[in-house]
Amino acid sequence: MSTTPVNSTPQEKQILHPRNLHRDRYNFKVLCKSNPALKPFVAVNRYDIESIDFTNPEAVKALNKALLKHFYGVDSWDIPDGYLCPPIPGRADYIHYLADLLAESNNGVVPTGNKVKILDIGTGANVVYPLIGSSAYDWKFVGTEVDLIALASAKNIIALNKHLRDKIDIRRQASKTNIFNGIINGGEVFDASICNPPFHASALEAKDATETKWKKLGVNPNQKTPLNFGGQKTELWYPGGEAAFITRMIEESAVIPENCKWFTTLVSKKETVPIVQRALTRVRAINVKTINMAQGQKASRILAWTFLG
Ligand code: SAH
Q: Bridge partners of 75?
């Protein structure tokens, strides 16, 4: 099994957002203090640097527990087997670029504190965006979720971390095809909505992509692994893929133009951009921005739109 570290050389990490706390190489001594269960997974790799085997889901989970505790004050965090184990540095980037977007209409200053309310569509079993955003900027979050196991996991994480109980509210989306419908209460106003959408068009496409990723990491795809840390089920796919999901989000956003000052979403495939931009023209969004991000070798972008002047 390869032990090549992903995203672990300083050069690669330089392209993270300037306020991202993960631009430097991981300090495993410090991280192992935060989570002693990480220790058995740490070894010196072929570049003579301490690292973990990023193809081992248990090692990645232990690293995430350590990072969330050390950098974001999350004392207790876990996810059910088979659910998405998110790369923390990349998720933090979205939060910091969002902070910059909100600063633009706040005299260039990032608004902080619990008056800032963010809606996280598809918060996942991991609740990663609310965990980072509430710690980094003291924002309040509402996280939505359709998958009942992910929903229970998200609620459990909040219940286990007392200081998060009045900062993060988890709401069930009862319909797989709805995004904002049934979630936002009458006069509720959010400063922004965020989303990491399910991006594959089918379960098969999701499976193929996971296998390709495993191959790139040097792992035999037939090898049995304790859990599929690429995520599965509804987490990674939606009929029509991310283009259909985001188009639906855009259409629903036009019905509630004043309930979110900014609507935003990740767009992972660049082919999706022109499709969703056409949807934004159709609904007459007033201002549309594309914010480019790059983590390691993977380019991604945040699409943001508003109906407010
Ligand atoms: N935010 C997490 C999880 C992203 S995966 C992260 O970045 O790691 C996408 C999530 O969206 C999954 O948990 C999936 O169950 C959820 N989802 C799919 N359709 C949804 C919908 N209509 N409303 C809310 N959540 C949805």
A: none
Which among 129, 123, 94, 96 is positioned nearest to 112, based on CA atoms?
96
Minimum CA distance residue for ligand 1 atom 14? 235
Instruction: Evaluate: CB of 145 within 6 angstroms of ligand 1.
Output: yes
Angle at 121 between CA 105 and CA 253, to 5 degrees: 60
The residue whose C-alpha atom lies closest to atom 17 belonging to ligand 1 is: 122
Contact (Cβ atoms closer than 8 angstroms) between residue 276 and residue 247: yes
Give the DSSP per-residue string, 77-128: ----TTS----HHHHHHHHHHHHHHHHHTTTT----STT-EEEEES-TTTTH
> At a CB cut-off of 8 Å and minimum separation 6, what does 75 contact?
69, 160, 161
184 within 8 A of 155, measured Cβ to Cβ: no
Q: Does residue 86 line the site of ligand 1, with CB under 6 A?
A: yes
pTM metric for this prediction? 0.90
Cβ–ligand 1 contact at 84 (below 6 Å) = yes
Inter-residue long-range contacts of 215-218, CB under 8 Å, 24+ positions, other chains counted: 217/2, 217/4, 217/6, 217/54, 217/55, 218/1, 218/2, 218/4, 218/55
pLDDT by residue (tens digit) across 62-121? 999 999 999 999 999 999 988 999 999 999 999 999 999 999 999 999 999 999 999 999
- Which atom of ligand 1 is closest in space to residue 86's alpha carbon? 8
User: Within 13 Å of residue 241, how many CA atoms lie on the same side as its CB?
Assistant: 17
144 Cβ below 6 A of ligand 1: yes
Q: Checking DSSP bridges between strand 287-295 and strand 260-267, what pairing results, if any? A: unpaired
Name the pLDDT band for 3 (thresholds 50, 70, 90). Answer: very low
Q: What is the dihedral of CA 215, 93, 152, 231, to 10 degrees?
A: -10
Of how many residues is the chain composed? 309
Q: How many CA atoms lie within 13 A of 68 on its CB side?
A: 28
